[in-house]
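FAQ
Q: What does a multi-component entry look like?
A: The components come first, one per line:
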Amino acid sequence: MAATVVARGNVSGLENKDFEKLAVPLLDGLYNFARWLCGDADEARDLVQETFLKSLKGFSSFREGTNFRAWMFRILRNTFLTSRTGLERRNTQQEDEEGFEESSVSPETPEIALIRRADTELVQAAIAQLAPAFQEVILLADLEEMKYQEIAEALDIPIGTVMSRLARARKQVREHIVLTLGGKRTVGVK
Amino acid sequence: MTNCEWREKIGLYVDGELEPREEQSVAGHLQSCADCSSAVLEQQALKKAVRVAGKRFTAPPELYASVHRQMLPKKPAGLWLKGSALAASVALLAVIAFALISRPSASNATLAQLIDQHVTMLASANPVDVISSDKHTVKPWFQGKLPFTFNPPELAAGSPFTLVGGKLIYAQHAPGAELVYQVRQHKMSVFIFQARDVRGEPSAANQTFVVNGWQQGGLQYYIVTDASREDTDRLRALLQDANR
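Then the predicted structure of the entire assembly, as tokens:
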């Protein structure tokens, strides 16, 4: 997005009046992300408003060389994590990330056809069933088209964790689609 | 499946995370490895499916409005104003006078805002929220998002214009539509607002962009583009015909 292009450059000398120009184009993406995180329209709206308030207040301390989009998403996510819903989700839906091996899926063509056949509703269900840690990574990578480094900054996690969570999220989305459309047959997943 | 040694690079390749040299090597390998090629196709299909399905929610107009309100600078109430009806009247008159005086610059600000929006669209990885060359897909997408409706023109088979898609935008705190068209290598943004929300401004141009504005049927239209004036006039004529 343009805001990111601007933010990737030298941001020294930015003033508060520049905030609107940078931040408003991100509103739709932030709201969409917030809705996925919260699962509730009112809560998502409050979360985005709080994110804008916090980021506007903190804009003067925005550091040169920092990615603005990643910064905004990080504020939103941190705000969410300290909310009641965020705390509940953190406590109840943590998943073990150990022992995961990447590339454990079969690249057979019928699965590609199934993925292509999947309707939006099915893919949304597949995303919705992901643990929050996987959901946020796949949304930032595939929807917001963030680079791994940008995701790492937004979520405050190492880049290796981004990669492993992303691979695992995709594996689960793929499994959900293939198992739903392809019946109960095994599709080469562990 | 086979355990091709290249498989671990497939995800990075599809996500565009490899260095150019490595990317070239993987591309070369794909020519001869059916398994890895299938894996790439599958990952691409999955990414596309998530991209489409993940874009599930659009920020409601009132959220845009409240965020805009948050960003308005807060003016401290002066002590002199308190308790003085006379001072309040003077201030009110001053505000009205300021509003009248500043009207031309407000519309210039609108044009600047629309040019910014057009540039943002050009630079964006997701330039439109609804991607379709079919006006019967794009127009219904705006239903319920805007308090007005409009007709994108029917483009003939040989028309140089192609509809790219559309998105919801805001200018002067009012919701509007941005339709994106392509003519040869140039993108053209058509902005549509209720005329009462966004005041009209005649056609203008800066060094880079042509801005063509008109009012029709209670709506304010603007075309912003780096295409030629002739192309802009032709698209304007098509839009005017479609909305008669």
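Q: Is there any commentary attached?
A: Sometimes. For this entry: Confidence is low (pLDDT under 50) at residues 1-12, 93-108, 184-190 of chain A.
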